[in-house]
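Narrative of activities, Objective 1.

The group set out to show that a structural description can be obtained from nothing but a protein's sequence at a throughput compatible with the screening campaign. Below is one input-output pair from the validation batch, recorded exactly as produced.
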Amino acid sequence: MSKLLEVKDLNLKIEDTEILKGIDFSLEKGEVFALIGPNGCGKSTLAYTLMGINNYYPDKGELLFKGEKINDLKINERAKKGITLAWQEPARYQGVTVREFLSLGLKSKGEEVTEGKLANALNKVAIRPAQYMDRFVDKSLSGGERKRIELAALILMHPELIILDEPDSGVDVVALNNIADMINYFKDSGSGILLITHSEEMLNYADKAALICDGEIIRQGDTSSISDYFKSYCGPCAKSEECETEVAS
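Output recorded for this entry:
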C-alpha cells in the first residue's frame, strides 16, 4: 500500500507556546489510523494543522499528501486535493437547507446535482429525504441529525483523506452506528481515515493507533496494545488530569 499521508517531525507553536512536538506518523490508502489521547493534549490542534485551519502552519517538519508537501497550502487548496475534516461539533448553517448543504459536496467535485444522488446519500445515513431535504441545517436539528447529514455530505464528496475529529461526541445511537458504517464504507473504497478520539471504544474501528500526550506521540502500534496502555496509564496519570483542567478552564 502507498503512503497517503506522512507527518514528519511536526512542530507547532501558538503564541510562543509549543503545542505539537515532533509528531511522526503515516497513513495509507484504505487504512484507519486512530490518534487517541486525553482532551486538551493536542489532538484537535493536529487536525487543524493538517487541514490548514486558523492559519495553523507548522513551525518545523513536513506534511506530505501523496508525496507532495502541503505545509503552506490554504484550507481550500487542501480540500481540492481531497482532504476533508469532519468537525467534532457539526456546523450549523443559518438559512442553508439540507439540499443546499449536500449540493455543495457534488459541486466541489464538478458533478451534476440530482435529487437522486442527494436522496441516496441521506438514505445511507438513515435520514428520510422527504422529511429533511428542505429543512435548515441549524439548531432546529439535533446534534445527531447534523452529524448524520455531515456524513451524507462526505459520501457525496468522497475525499481521499478524511479526518474525523471526535466523531462520537454528543451523537445519538443511530448516528454512532452510521459513523461505524461510514468508516467501513470509506475504508473499503480506498479512502484513508484519521480517527481522532479520546474514547478507547473507537479504537475498535482502527487498523493501528498512536497515543498522544501533551503534544507528543508517546506510543504507536496495534490498537489492542495502545488501548491497554491508555486504560492502564492515561486514566490515573497526573498529566492527563492537567489536560482535562486546561480544557475546562
